[in-house]
Each structure stands twice: as C-alpha cells, then as structure tokens.
Amino acid sequence: MANAEHGGRAGNAFAAGAQTARVRLRALRVGLWVIAALLAARQVAAVLGTPKADRLTDLETWVGSDGVLHVKGSLYDSTQFTGTPFGGLVLKPLTRAAEQALGWGWTFGTLLLVVALGLVAARALPQPVSRRTALLAAPVAISLLMLSLPVRNALYLGQTSIIPVLLVLLGCFAVRGERACGVLIGLAAALQPTVLLFAPLLWFTGRRRAAVSTGVTFAALTALAWAAMPHDSNTYWVHHLAGVGLGRAADDLANQSLHGALLRFGLSGPLEIGLFLALGAAVAVLGLRRAVFYARDGQLLLAVAITGCVAVAVSPTTWQYQLLWVLLAVVGRVGRKTSDRFMWPVAVVLVMTLPGKMMLPNMAVLHPVRDNVVLIAALAAATLVPFLSRTSAYYRAPVPTDYAEPVPTRWKRVPLLPVPGRVLARPNLLLELLLIRVGYSAYQQVRLAATGGTNAGGRATAEHHGDQILAVERFLRIDIEHWVNHAVFKIGFLRDFFDFYYESFHFFVPLGVLAVLYVRRPADYRWARSALGFATLFALVGFWLYPLAPPRLMPGLGVIDTVHGVQDFSKPDYGTLTSLTNQYAAMPSLHFGWSLWCGLVIAILAPKGWMKALGLLHPLFTVSAIVATGNHWTLDAFGGAAVVAAGFGLTYLLQGPRPRRPGKTVEAGAEVPVPATGRIRS
User: Which of 152, 462, 471, 622 is an S-S bond match for 595, by CB 3.0 to 4.6 Å?
Assistant: First the structure.
C-alpha cells in the first residue's frame, strides 16, 4: 500500500511538472512571437514614417513616374537598374500601378516574404529537432531576419533580394518533386544569376533532375526576356558581362565580394582580374565540396547557406541587400564544448545586424577587416569554419559545463535564474572580446545620444541640473570642486599626474582586472563581468534621465578644464569636444564607478593584504582626479557608487552569491543536494 501511495505521489508530481513545462513553453513561444511582431511593426513604421521622397528609393527609381522601366531605350543606359532583363520584364507591369498603393503593397508584401522565409528556414532545421526547438525556431528566425541589414535595406529601399533566397528555400524544402524544385531555383537564378551555383549542389547530391530543371528554367526565362527585350539583354549579358559595372562603383564598401575587396586593396587591371578569377574558382570548388558534404550529412539548410556564401564571394558585385545567405549560416554547429556553441551564431548575427564600425575599433590597421567584415564571414562559412557533422559525438551532446556547488542563500527566490551554480570553465575568449567590443560601442552610441546633443535645449537642461547639484552640495557643505581644481592647477606635476590618470587608467585598469580574472579565476570573472555590465546599463539610464553639465562646463563657476583646455562659452557647441563623447553624461560618474568596481573586486579576491590595499587606492585616486580636473561633481561619485552597488545587487539576485571556493563541481542538469539551511535551485 505504501509503495502504491508513493508511486501515486510520484506520478502526480511528474504530471504536475510536465504541465508546468508545457505552460512555460507556451508562454515562451507567445513571448517570442510578440517580439517578432513588434520588430515587424517597428520596421514597417520606420519605412512608412519616412518622407515619401526618401523611402522605397530603389523601387521609385525602377517603376516610378520617371523610373528607368518607363524609358523606351535600354534599361541600363543610366546604370541605375542592376537587375536582370527578366527582372525588368517582371517589374514592368508595376509601372501601371498607383504610386501610393504600390508603396504600401510593396512594404507589406516584403514583410510577408520575410515571414515566409523565417517559417521555411525554421522547418528546414536538420533532424533530430526537438518539439521545443521546432516551436521556438520560427519566431526567432523571423526576428533575426527583421533585424538583419539586408532585410532592413529591402524594406527601406524597396528591393527584390529576399525573393531569390525564398525561392531557393521553397525549392529545397517546401515543394515535392525534383522538377518543381528546379523550376523555383531556375526562376531565382533568372532574377539573380549567381543562384546557378545551386545547380552543382543539386547535381552532386543526387538530385540531377532538379539540377537539369534549374538550368532549363533559367535558360527558358532568359530566352523569353531576350525575345521581349533583345537590346537590354545584349547590354546586360554581353556588354556588362552579366551585370558587371551596374550600380555604384565596384570598390564601394557596399560591394562585399572578392572583386570589391581586391579593388579596395588598390589592385586593378589584369592583375586584379586574374587574382579574382583564381580566388573565386578556389572558393567555389572548396565551398561547393563542403556544401555537398553537409547536404549528404543531413544538414541541407547549412549546405544551402554555404552555397549562398560562395555566391556572395565569387559574384563581381554583391551589394548589401544580397547578403541574406550569410545569415542562414547561423544554423551550423561549431565547437565541442557547450560554452563554444554560441561563438559562431552570435558572430554571424552581429555581423549581419550591426555596421562594421561597431564591430571593430576605428584603427587604421583594422580598416581592411572592418570594411570587408561581411565578406570575411561569408568566406569563413564557405571554406574555413569547422561545422560539426551529425555523425560527430559532439553534435547532439557537447562537452557539458562544470558548475561550482551553489552557495546557500537567505532568500528562497534567490537566484532568480534557474542555474545549477557558477560556471567554472572559461567562456569563449573570442566571444567575450566580441561582446565587450560591441557592448562598449553600443554604450558609446547611447551615451552620445542620451542628451540629444549639445543643442540649446540640451545645454540649458544640463546647466540647470548643474545648478541643482551645486545647490545640494552647498547644503551638504561638500562643494569642493572649485577649491580642489584651482589648488591642483597651481602645482604643475600634480596637475599633469591627475590629467594622465583621468585619461588613461579609466580603461586600462578595468580591462586588466578582467584579463587577470579570465586567466586565473574564470568563475569569478563571470561574476565580476556581469556586475560591471549591469552597473554600466544603470549608468546609461542615469545619463538619459538626468543630463548634467560637469563643473568645467558651467558658465560663471570658474572651474578650469585642465584636460581639454579653456572652453569658449560664447560658442553654442562648446561642449562638443569630440564626436564620440557626450559632455553632459556626468551623473553618475562611470570614471569613479568603474574604478570602485576594480577596487572592490581586487579587495574581495586578492590573496594578499597589500594587493587589497593597492586595489582600493585606485578609486581614491580616481575620485581625486575627476574632481581636480573639473570633469565631475562630488555627488557624481556617489552616483557612480550607487550604480556599482546596484550592479552587484542585481548579479546576486539573478545568479546568487559567488562560490567562496571552487569546492565540488556538478554537471549541467545534475541533481544538487540541498543543505539544511538555505535553498539551492538545481
């Protein structure tokens, strides 16, 4: 009887757990669809909110009242039309449509194409795909597409680049029969000739009827266009060598092909052409061999993405709106460890959603990489990235992550995230560097835009807040900025020391602390990095809500700017010292906040007493420097301390306390024993 009762309770618990899991999965799925819908609405609103003269400019160039498709001569006389003659033949009937109705129809039609593309890509994920993954993949795919630069360009400019990608995916995954597959891919090739590279992929994977049908369809549609538009067809295929030389200059940054990169490197003439042909042939052979391998391995979507990346590289011109193939490569799995699995997809998403200047610092030595970052991603996917085979033991089961045994907490809801404990292994270094760079670049952009610039309204608001801060400091009797500033200014070596400390140590010390923790104490690195990130986010909120002029930019206060020199307050934009800095982002002081973070981390983790004391000297010197140089009020330091405290507090709430010592390790998903005191979540 006891066993029966125990079994009944276990069964009820299992049923309750399954029901809870279903509810959570349903809520997650709804949330992801809401996010996808909001992103779609945001993109459409951005397009429709743009003045008519500035939106759908490519569509207007083609089918507008003065568009090239109305011209009786060649479509390519002005080089504005870059499509194939068949593309012009398809678009020509749109010239009879009402302009406003066409704009609305094109925008929402493009949106529907993106949704269809996301749904087809989600269904094409390689087996075995869990039910949870299948349910969640579609809204995630649609969201990524909405955020990508090619889709944003297609919606904003009015371009047809989504159609060939969708036709290829429909041919490979949605239709039955090889002939239907070939017809769809042949139609895509008639719109974008480099799609013909999919014919070898079909041939060498055993779908020879589809390959033949692709070639026949392409030839038939091209012949149809030639019969209807012989002069244009001769211009495109013969004079322009399948579109070469149409549109912007081939060395434009928007041309992310090998040809464009070689031109940007300064090569030209026969040498450049020969090198392009040799490199293009090598990329095509190697890339198609890899695509065939992964198609036979059961990863057809990855094979399609690799072939598309080959097309990106070998085409003479591959404009930004033709780069969706690179985003599809996100489906490839890379890395044996769980911690390495996110490196490739995160890198691809960032490359396809952010401009190159956010990915890499503005350093001359890095400009060749920054200017060709999408091409580099395409070449990497086509030839270099070691995607895992489905036969690999690590494909389904990567090396699990080791966790430190969790530390008991007083509050039963802590940690809020259901994690088994602090991760002991180092995170992927390339991923960390990439996220740090992108995060800091985003921080710079938000910080710069927080006050709306140095316009009259922003300046007046910031100075008004400066008067408020000064009044509070006078009430508290801590208004020491003027006295400290002038006292330090009179002592040359002390002024030079604080100027150097203010400009240099703000970045050097936090990066040094992170580097040491990454190498020596990975678990504590994650804890400290999270606290620093949250503190910086809180500071951005402060910059946005409370723009504040520092003492050096307060007219009439008499504080000397020891770092940047004397300010001319008669100029409206005197606060704009550089194009990368918001001069009114003073509250809270991240100079002091980051230094306090460094001091606390060193004081908590350093093994020696003298190391702890040395670490605590950094925030002391920093607060002296920010006041002495006139860059911050005393209260700004208190604001910096507040956001650091909030950063550590939020880290504690989400992840729980850090492990006091390495202790035992547990694998992900393992049962964690619960001590008598406190509560540990497994």
Answer: 622
SS3 (DSSP) at 423: strand
How many CA atoms does the CB half-sphere of 22 hold within 13 Å? 6
For residues 487 and 483, give the distance between their C-alpha atoms in angstroms, rounded to a whole number.
6
Distance, C-alpha 284 to centroid of its chain: 28
8 Å CB contact between 422 and 658: yes
Task: Report the alpha-carbon distance of residue 586 to residue 426 in Å, rounded.
Answer: 34
Picking from 186, 380, 395, the residue whose alpha carbon sits closest to that of residue 287 is 380
Q: Are 614 and 471 in contact (CB under 8 A)?
A: no
- CA 245 distance to own-chain centroid: 31
The two tokens of residue 235 are 């211009």
β-sheet bridge partners, residue 665: 404
CA neighbor of 253 nearest in space, from 149, 372, 379: 372
In which region does residue 565 sit, left (phi positive, over 0), alpha (psi from -120 to 50) or beta (all else)? left
DSSP symbols for 282-325: HHHHHHHHHHHHHHHTT-HHHHHHHHHHHHHHHSS---GGG-HH
pLDDT tens track for 372-405: 999 999 999 999 999 999 999 888 888 877 777 7
Question: What average pLDDT score do residues 541-565 get?
Answer: 83
Q: Which helix (H) or strand (E) holds 654?
A: helix 634-655
In which residue are the tokens 């850090």 written?
658
Nearest C-alpha neighbor of 47 from the set 108, 118, 91: 108
Query: Nearest 5°: CA angle at 362, between 357 and 364?
Result: 120
Mean pLDDT, to the nearest integer, of 82-91? Answer: 90
Do you know the residue count of the chain?
A: 682
User: What is d(CA 258, CA 312) in angstroms, rounded to the nearest whole number?
Assistant: 8
Q: Work out the number of other CB atoms within 10 angstroms of the CB of residue 109.
A: 12
Supply 300's token pair: 């057809």
- Percentage of the chain beyond pLDDT 70 is 86
Long-range contacts of 561-565 (CB under 8 A, 24+ apart): 561/629, 561/630, 561/631, 562/485, 562/488, 562/489, 562/495, 562/498, 562/499, 562/628, 562/629, 562/630, 563/499, 563/502, 563/503, 563/629, 563/631
What tokens does 51 get? Answer: 């003045």
**Spatial separation of the C-alpha atoms in residues 615 and 595, rounded to whole Å:** 9
Q: Does the structure show a pLDDT above 60 at 661?
A: no
CA–CA separation, 69 and 190 (whole Å) = 18
CA angle 490, 491, 495 (to 5 degrees): 100
**Contact criterion met (CB below 8 Å) for 404 and 656:** no
Model confidence at 576, pLDDT cuts 50, 70, 90, reads very low
More confident residue, 539 or 667: 539
Q: Which pTM was predicted? A: 0.81
Residue 498 to residue 551: CA distance in whole angstroms: 16
Q: How many CB atoms neighbour CB 651 within 10 A?
A: 23
* Residue 582 and residue 450 in contact, taking contact as beta carbons nearer than 8 Å: yes
Classify residue 363 by burial, with Cβ atoms within 10 Å: 0-12, 13-18, 19+. Answer: exposed
- Name the pLDDT band for 21 (thresholds 50, 70, 90): low
Angle at 552 between CA 550 and CA 555, to 5 degrees: 100
Look up residue 404 and give its DSSP letter. E
Q: How many helices (H) and strands (E) does the chain have?
A: 28, 2
The DSSP secondary-structure symbol of 238 reads I
* Residue whose pair of structure tokens reads 């490197």 in the numeric block: 265
Average pLDDT across the chain, whole number? 83
Residue whose structure tokens are 């990489």: 369
- φ/ψ of 299, rounded to 5, equals -110, 65
* Torsion, CA 469, CA 473, CA 476, CA 479, rounded to 10: 180
CB atoms within 10 A of CB 100: 9
403-435: per-residue pLDDT in tens? 777 677 777 777 776 666 677 778 888 888 888
Cα gap 562→482, rounded to integer Å: 12
